Amino acid sequence: MQIRNAQYNLACRLKPRRKFARFGDRAWLFFLPLMFLPDLGFRRSTAFGTLGIGDYLIFPYIVLLLVAKGQPCPRFSKGLRLILIAFLAWTLIGVVSINIRYPYDLDYSAMNFSLFKIAKLALYGLAGILTMKRMRDSIRRRDLCWSLLGVVAVLAISLLLGPGKDIEVRSNTGYINHNAISVTAAILVSYCGGLLVCGYGSRRWKWVAQLIVVIGLTGILVSQGRGGWVATIFAIAYVAWRRGLSSVTVALVAGFLVLGFVSYRMFPEFQKRLDFTVNPELRYQTGETPNETGIDSGGRVEIWLWEGRKFIDATFWGTGFFHRGGSTRINPNGSHNFFIQMFLETGLFGGLLVLLAFGRMWVDAGSREAQQALLTTPLRAALIAAFVGGMGGEYYYGGIPVLALFLVYAPTGALPAMRRARVVSYVGGMVRSPVEVKRRA
């Protein structure tokens, strides 16, 4: 009797510690939506660029990831991690040699600025890798999907509240780059919508996801960046083609068209931007831009061709990561194409590494494990949205767009390790039957 009382007293003392440990294991999931908040007055202009609220919150997010329980790096995410390390090492060599290759003498401002951009990319890349390592099992994968719905809700509500505010207020409290936020929302909405179409998740998650996806699509439509519009259209087209003419697919396409019509009627800024895009002559009438015919692409193809010619000036090393203007002859605003820009700034090898990273994620999305977990179509839809957004001018130098890419890849990147962990736990007697192992897979 005394032994039982001692065991009971010990269990009572350990219970609060276990609760705290469980909370610490999941705290990063609750913190994640805060990373995508608008700046709320915390924006700061520095010598290394403008810092948003996400650039401050990334540090506590990494700390929470380090506190949570993890696992050895899975096979899939190992390949992406090696590509990221190789890219960072290559760009670091190119940036350190900027003052040798260009006549800056003792002026190291360009090199320091590029080093800061590399550090920012490495920081968000570390957060993405740690997120994948925290995906221990299917339960944590489901928890991440709930957290992603919170992220989409934060982005969508912020975008919906943005158009009605004064420009000066919005510039201080909103997002730094509206096109980047629009593309980020497109990536996450495409992923959550793909999960919904594929029948992933519990009944409660599906009901909440339907509402969040609708709000997210509306936020993308009324956003200031047209890149999110085009990325979302391509992602929805891929999902419709991949899943066929099912009732869910038809409802998705029809719902998007209805949302577009309603947003066109309700939001004057969206109506104006869409009219200017479809009929550029309206801009000529208002004196904003020269007369154009057809759909207004912002002269993207001409800019791509003009900037792409400069690749021969620095074919091997490139000009340096985020090193533009001055002696480089590259437009300070870039080529409005992330992939062309990477070839210009990091050379042939760096540009190929970027394409290899996207290709690796695409191949991993088609693996047998991803197909069994219903993650193939959602991840590939998100990758298409990211690729189209990059072609339209969104630069993945760091920040929440890069984090969004890692978040949608994390469940797939951790699948092989999660499968092995379930088998080991079954052998150890923690899972009662092989049927439960198969069902949880």
Number of helices: 20
Which spans have pLDDT < 50 for at least 5 consecutive residues?
Answer: 10-20, 164-169, 417-441
Question: Which structural category do the helix and sheet elements fall into?
Answer: mainly alpha
Oligomer: single chain
Largest sheet: 2 strands, antiparallel
Morphology call: globular
Q: Report the order of strands and helices.
A: HEEHHHHHHHHHHHHHHHHHHH
- Count up the domains: 1
Strand order, sheet with most strands: 1-2
Cα-atom radius of gyration? 24 Å
> N-to-C terminal Cα separation, in Å?
43 Å
Residues in β-strands, percent: under 5%
The residue-averaged pLDDT reads 80
The number of strands is 2
- Which bin fits the share of residues in helices? over 70%
Describe the protein:
The two termini are 43 Å apart. Strand 1 (44-46) and strand 2 form a beta hairpin. With 441 residues, the protein is mainly alpha-helical. It is 71% helix and 1% strand. The protein has one domain (20-440). The longest helix is centred in the N-terminal third of the chain and has 30 residues, at 2-31. Helix 2 (53-67) crosses helix 5 (109-133). The protein is globular. It has a two-stranded antiparallel ribbon with strand order 1-2.
